[in-house]
């Protein structure tokens, strides 16, 4: 990762942990995470645990994120959570995760509406893109990832809060679907090439080179303490969106430490 972009490690807990279990995990995580400087750390528990986790993170620099949101402000949308409800507790929100696309029929168009809504409410969206195994094997990685960037982020140049002083609020996560939860991560080199060619290049075409270079791009897909450094040593990868390993305090802390070390080594 480059020294100009601050690394970010986000833990996506998915549909795991009751409120009591969430409190226990956070109590194990906070002491270790607090010792790692120079890295942004974010926890994304289920909606039911956001309030409890927010209380435990108060006074720390650890960020809180939701796993999705709905784009409408309020109304008859049973089961959904609005951007302002998320923004009340969180700074970050994951949008367009492959599981949302696969199981809940999210599309590039709905991802775009959610990203626009998140930015309008001052949230930092972590926008997920990535190809399936079939798309990867048939040589369509470039086509799929570029399309997801172009359509998912269409019309954002006019979005409030996108271009501002300080770090760009938009975060992209490259998560090859074939690597998620399979124990078969991409190679650091392969993931880096996708980020450079199929994420930063379209971002530069849409928003300019300076913007593209300031967006943090995370890798997601079977990241563990043992392989994290392989990704963080790559110049285009700025951290990780961590799934299963974020449910184990020692693993998640180890991944965060690897991000810190790679930043130190690049100086």
CATH topology descriptor: TIM Barrel
Structural class: alpha/beta
- CATH architectural category: Alpha-Beta Barrel
Report the strand count: 8
Q: So, the CATH homologous superfamily?
A: Aldolase class I
Description of the structure:
The chain is α/β, with parallel strands linked by helices. The protein has one domain: TIM Barrel. It has eleven helices and eight strands. Strand 1, helix 1 and strand 2 (40-44) form a beta-alpha-beta unit. Helix 1 (19-34) runs parallel beside helix 2 (50-57) and helix 5 (108-120) packs across helix 7. The protein is globular. It starts with 7 loop residues before the first strand and ends with a helix.
Can you give keywords for this protein?
single chain; 267 residues; alpha/beta; TIM Barrel; eight-stranded parallel β-sheet; 11 helices; globular
Secondary-structure topology with pairs:
Layout: E1 8-12, H1 19-34, E2 40-44, H2 50-57, E3 63-66, H3 83-89, E4 92-95, H4 98-103, H5 108-120, E5 124-129, H6 133-137, H7 141-152, E6 171-174, H8 188-207, H9 209-214, E7 216-219, H10 228-232, E8 239-242, H11 249-266
Parallel strand pairs: 1-2, 1-8, 2-3, 3-4, 4-5, 5-6, 6-7
Helix pairs in contact: 1-2, 1-11, 5-7, 7-8
